[in-house]
Amino acid sequence: MFQSETYGKLNIEQIPEKILAFYDKNLNTEGVFQIVVGTDSQNFNDTKMVTVIAAYKEGHGGIFFYEIDRINRITNVLQKLNAETSRSLEVMMQLAGELEEESKYKKMREETLLSIHVDAGWSDKGKTKELIPGLIGWIRACGFEAKCKPESFAASSIADKISK
Prior knowledge:
Low-confidence stretches: none
Structural class: alpha/beta
Strand order of the largest sheet: 5-4-3-6-7
Shape: globular
Distance between the termini: 19 Å
Number of helices: 5
């Protein structure tokens, strides 16, 4: 079950309607409309995994929805990033399927960039740099754009804040 500060609790099938309303509101504004999914997790006694769906048009704001899952603790960085990316892809594929299914979403879907935000960065100090090419390849092979830090705000900012 996803949550929104604006719309309350929603299942994923209800989210496209809310995104469409936001899209329609910004139809005549400049910029590319985007839907992004990102996941971040934090370890406690278990692993708290937060997945975010965000829809936005740069310069015109956005809306987001999030889901919190508690799973067995993951301590290995590679396994954690794979689990986060897998969850993001699962949610994006389900959302894209919903958008493809109904004709009322056709125009929005054709004009929308779909991307996955990965909570990994290119910094030499980080532990994730060498994992990024594989994650990006996986995401692109599934048909979506991929963004890493510092551009991956859905994972590295929104989901990160909620996961803490």
